[in-house]
Specification:
The complex is a heterodimer of chains A (190) and B (168).
Chain A lengths: L2 H4 L2 H6 L4 H12 L2 H24 L5 H41 L11 H7 L36 E6 L8 E6 L14
Antiparallel strand pairs in A: 1-2
Chain B lengths: L1 H19 L2 H17 L10 H20 L11 H4 L8 H16 L3 H12 L4 H8 L3 H18 L12
Helix pairs in contact in B: 1-2, 1-3, 2-3, 3-7, 6-8, 7-8
Classes of the chains: A mainly alpha (190), B mainly alpha (168).
Chain lengths: 190, 168
């Protein structure tokens, strides 16, 4: 047995030898029963594996149906995702456009005239219960922007005017103050 | 789509079976492979390379999964005996079935890399360069793994059909 030649057995079986090397190895096979037997054995194994695997291990019947279902699901998911993305893009573009138009320095914000509006708004008249009893009737506001609020008890509440953007709107927070607890035994009404 | 599936799904399933050694995991892997392939279908420029491309996706998916799980499943694949006799000549049926079963079991017992290379070469008839692409290894590494796998198989199956290989 020529061991140096035997080392080429796998290269020969794999078809990786050059033509002259393959011819030399085939000459070697003639005088080496061990290599000849290995070649035959390997060829038989290769034949078995080549034909057998497909026969022995067929794909399950559910495989193709399962793949089709998953691909359909994936396709639907992608379409929905695309539609959501497109809708979000349109919404963002619209919002950006509106914001841009609103903040343009050259286009002044439309100011509504106060006077026509004032005729439509009922003037705010201070309620009798919050008007001080001894206070003079006070001037009746002629315009909604000039509102006079007087309290019967000035310590009963704190008035906080809130800044607004519109000249037609005035907001005043009325925060009632906390009165001290009544001493025990004192009647509720004096 | 259906014809492509019928053509390639069994190949991908059997390769997935070699990778996972578990029929359920193999079916799952094959399905996921086709979903990924569908997503990236524009990347396949050469339809003739579809099989290698699908194997590549399956191998990558399996590698990612194995890395995530930190282990590989070890169940041996049960052989479906019903199908074994379908195309084998009747007079050699019993011997061939036994030999085939032993050959497949011997292949299953190989280390994963050798098993995958041997399967792609012997069962899917891929060239070494294609095997390298599928498994992300060099052609030389594929060749070395294949040589080792074949040596081990010959050693394990030394007595395969002994009567056909009488010792002088």
């Amino acid at each position: 047995m020529n061991h140096a030649e035997c080392d080429f057995l796998d290269d020969y079986l794999g078809g990786w030898l050059a033509a002259d090397q393959a011819a030399r190895f085939e000459n070697h096979l003639g005088g080496c029963p061990a290599c000849r037997q290995d070649v035959e054995r390997q060829r038989r194994i290769d034949r078995l594996l080549a034909h057998g695997a497909a026969q022995l291990q067929p794909a399950p019947a559910s495989l193709i149906v399962g793949i089709e279902q998953r691909v359909r699901h994936e396709s639907r998911r992608r379409k929905v995702r695309w539609a959501c993305g497109a809708a979000a893009s349109v919404a963002v573009a619209l919002a950006a456009g509106v914001a841009l138009l609103g903040n343009l320095p050259d286009t002044p914000a439309p100011v509504r005239p106060i006077a026509p509006r004032a005729t439509a708004v009922k003037p705010i008249v201070p309620r009798d219960d919050v008007r001080s009893a001894d206070a003079p009737p006070g001037p009746v506001p002629t315009s909604p922007a000039e509102v006079l609020v007087t309290l019967k008890d000035p310590s009963a509440a704190i008035l906080l005017p809130v800044e607004t953007r519109s000249p037609n709107v005035s907001i005043v927070w009325v925060c009632p103050t906390v009165k001290p607890a009544r001493p025990a035994g004192q009647p509720a009404d004096e | 789509m259906r014809s492509l599936l019928e053509q390639y799904a069994p190949h991908v399933y059997r390769f997935a079976l070699r990778l996972s050694r578990d029929p359920h995991a193999a079916e799952e892997l094959a399905q996921e492979t086709f979903v990924r392939a569908w997503r990236g279908r524009r990347r396949l420029r050469e339809p003739r390379a579809a099989r290698v491309w699908l194997f590549q996706i399956a191998a990558n998916l399996w590698r990612d999964r194995a890395r995530r799980e930190g282990r590989r499943r070890r169940q041996l694949v049960p052989l479906a005996d019903d199908h074994a006799a379908a195309t084998i000549a009747p007079e050699r049926q019993i011997d061939d079935r036994e030999d085939l079963q032993r050959a497949l079991e011997a292949m299953e017992s190989l280390p994963s890399r050798q098993r995958e290379v041997l399967y792609l070469h012997a069962c899917e008839d891929l060239a070494l360069a294609e095997i390298g692409r599928v498994l992300s290894i060099s052609t030389e590494a594929a060749k070395a793994s294949l040589s080792l796998a074949r040596k081990k198989l010959r050693r394990q199956l030394r007595d395969i059909c002994r009567d056909r290989f009488p010792t002088a």
